[in-house]
């Protein structure tokens, strides 16, 4: 299996622009997570989906952030408009919570908003 | 309260030393994961535990359910073990949400 695939690996954008991060989970995994990592706050859960349904989005900072999972093999995290304080590494992870319950991370997207 | 605490926060060791990183949690869990993150790199799951002990190469992970405590041991440490090690727990009745410790930054000096 190719693992969890995230794109892009790096994104540099100007304040006010829309940013879309993409994730393809491991085939057969039924949970998908979006995390944000910063030096100050470590790993923070933004939102997670079970069977493509958003379960907990309380970690989404504000209305500028939105996430979708239209099918079991694809999810997006969108920031519109972006701000410099959104600069961080965004990780997508997937898990088979009804089975082995392992947790697999993508390589992350490093976002820089100038 | 779903807290996960790790210690130490930072650790420097000489090559060859035996290393222990600790993780404590507040209430009963479904599973505990040890994760490894190299500088500028992705996050890799090393172990998933719900009881007992697991070993993979020079890495050993143990968990004591009664004491709500887990340890990650590295035997014969090597500079390539330098990374951040993160403890993550899954509590029952929280869906499939994971809670993370703040991580232990390990540096192994040749």
What are the key terms here?
heterodimer; A: 114 residues; mainly beta; four-stranded antiparallel β-sheet; 11 strands; globular; B: 110 residues; six-stranded mixed β-sheet; five-stranded antiparallel β-sheet
Task: Describe the protein's architecture and organization.
Chain A is globular. In chain A, a hairpin with a 3-residue loop joins strand 4 (31-38) and strand 5 (42-50). Chain A is mainly β and 114 residues long. The mean pLDDT of chain A is 92. In chain A, strands 2, 4, 5, 6, 9, 10 and 11 form a seven-stranded mixed beta sheet that branches. In chain A, 0% of the residues lie in helices and 55% in strands. Chain B is globular. In chain B, strand 4 and strand 5 form a beta hairpin. Chain B has 110 residues and is mainly β. The A-B interface holds A 31, 33, 42-43, 45, 48, 50, 55-56, 91, 93, 95, 97, 100-108 and B 30-31, 33, 35, 41-45, 48, 86, 88, 90, 95-98, 100, 102-103.
Summarize the structure.
Chain A is mostly beta strands. Chain A is 0% helix and 55% strand. The model of chain A has no long low-confidence stretch (mean pLDDT 92).
Protein topology:
The complex is a heterodimer of chains A (114) and B (110).
Chain A: E1 5-7, E2 10-13, E3 19-24, E4 31-38, E5 42-50, E6 53-56, E7 65-71, E8 74-79, E9 88-95, E10 103-105, E11 109-113
Parallel strand pairs in A: 2-11
Antiparallel strand pairs in A: 1-3, 3-8, 4-5, 4-9, 5-6, 7-8, 9-10, 9-11
Chain B: E1 4-7, E2 10-14, E3 19-25, E4 31-37, E5 43-49, E6 52-56, E7 59-64, E8 69-74, E9 83-90, E10 98-100, E11 104-109
Parallel strand pairs in B: 2-11
Antiparallel strand pairs in B: 1-3, 3-8, 4-5, 4-9, 6-7, 7-8, 9-10, 9-11
